[in-house]
Amino acid sequence: MRTIALTLAVLAGLGAAGGAAVVGMGLYNVSAQAGHLPGVSWVLHTTFRNSVALRAPDKSAVPPLEDPDLIALGAHHYASACATCHARPDAPRSATMRAMVPAPPPITEAITDWQPQELHWIIENGIKMSGMPAWPVAGRGDEIWSVVAYLEAVKSGTAPGFPAGEASQPDRSAQLPHPPAAGYCASCHLEAGDPVPRLDIQNAPYLEEQMRAYLSGRRPSGIMAQAMSVIPAREIPELARHLSRRAVDPALRGPAPGDPLADSELAARGATLAASGTRDVPACDACHGADAARPQSGAARGGDRGPVLAGQGRQYLAAQLRLWASGALDHDPLMSAAARDLAPAQIEALAAHYAARPAPQTTPEPAETD
Fold it and tell me: What is the pTM of this model?
């Protein structure tokens, strides 16, 4: 027994010494041109698949993914953040991406064998020892479903046309009659509909404050963190002024289809809650009511007033209220305190109420002069 123990100890010592030599003397070749040793790729890929299968959420967690607006939002984020490595669905990867080890697969190949909940886990968590990053911020798994919705549409062959070039980066190559990043922002805020907020109903100081909050990470959003990372900070004030005065076609921002009578009853309950509040929930109209109309100048919050909610998309409003109620959003102490006791039914009612109210009128963007 003692001989066996000594033998194992010697072998362990030799293994440790060998490992120290590999690390300390640089014996292991880290060149990407060398690739992995035989069998290593299979071990890593098998581990990857089994790890995702073990940790992915249950199928019951998958929301409806057929909403065209949700798919459009995911498409624009994919164009900005993901296409660099995985390419657009109808185009090859660049030579540089193909030279990576492991190489990021073309998106049509990458998504083939994964279920929606597994894609969500991969996008949220990223993959160690590869170029696949985690979602830019923690706690925003809700917005990852838009990317999953787009990938599922790609998989089924029903995805919309790939976003134009302005969707991936602001265009600074031409003399445009608006800030260079305006088209980039419009790709989601004018085209993605109900899941995305209208900007034209807010004042410019509020929009500028929120852009800077996204840029610093104070307001968490993986989609907006990516968007703001490609917009120079010096352009933010001008961009905020432009977006606050760019009218939105109401046809692009219509309410979600449903039972008109049921929606009307739900909105009525929301109106009562917004006006009167409860013992635990303050009256929302105190900060977001009719007198929270969007001025074209003034403080970002209009004094103690919050942003305009009337005319925002019902889906967007409900999602934001859920984030405030859960504590995922906490960058405004007043809103955190107001929303923390909201029940799910109250959230749906408030969203229906404010979405049904007419939005304040936008002052048109003035025409350019020579």
Answer: 0.84
